[in-house]
Known about the structure:
- It is a single chain.
- The protein is an alpha/beta fold.
- The chain is built from eleven helices and eight strands.
- The protein has helices spanning about 20-30, 35-40, 45-50, 85-95, 115-130, 145-155, 170-175, 180-190, 210-220, 250-260, 280-295; strands at about 35, 55-60, 100-105, 135, 160, 195-205, 225-230, 265-270.
- The protein has an eight-stranded mixed sheet with strand order 1-2-3-4-5-6-7-8, with helices on both faces.
- The relative contact order is 0.12.
Amino acid sequence: MPVSGPKPPWLRVRLPAGGACREVNSLLDNLGLHTVCEEAQCPNKGECFHSGTATFLILGDVCTRRCRFCAVPKGVPKPLDWDEPERVARAVEALGLKYAVITSVTRDDVPDGGAAIFAETIRAIRRRTPGCKVEVLVPDFQGSEAALQVVMSAGPDVLNHNLETVPRLYPIARPGADYDRSLRLLQRAKEMAPNALTKSGLMLGLGETLDEVRAVMADLVRIRCDLLTLGQYLQPSRAHLPVERYVPPEEFAALAREGVALGLKHVEAGPLVRSSYHAREQVEDFTAENAEAAEIT
Length: 297
């Protein structure tokens, strides 16, 4: 049964005010760019904007899928914008980013799902800001390995693709997606670029059981996925799926420990965790942990 009443105290977000948020918004507006922070109503938008970071949303701001958890507008997108990669690179340079996250709407209306623009965005960022690490959060490209290869050939530091929820809930939460297809994408990405990190994410609170979450984590270990994020699902509007449960912070912490014990390299878990929230810190923590382990051995 869906929850009712006010959100628990651990989900209250204090939005920082000040010039940094306005400056980021102004820069993005001037360059005609979108962010998932705005389009998906991310609860961490204020914190990230205040710190001068943003997760860029490419391929437009209209999605061809109708996932019932997502606030991004659905419908018929505009034609692809081939100047977009350079504008994203200019924003990364202007913000002085050391870590850029690039995601997109799903574009089932174009043959490669937008893979070529993903690849060119990575290259454009590297040309303008050579030291910047790039994480891409990609759609499933309808299972096209050729499209995935186009992205991987550009050399992203992290290839992220969210499973979003457990297999049983796909028909109601992710119509048009397929759990096994998404797993296969992550597996092939690791095979194509063994030195790149692979990453996925799950929302909790849609009605999944803990055993189902554990089974997904085991699947990710089996395909050698490196990083996982676990966060609380929050209903964007009454037209979206309701929240079935608010997961307490201690349960997220326990699942993170279980995930690492299963074999995941790093699990970032908490009520307000999102795929790109503290993405740079996640990778830095992972790198530091592995460097320390190498010194010990």
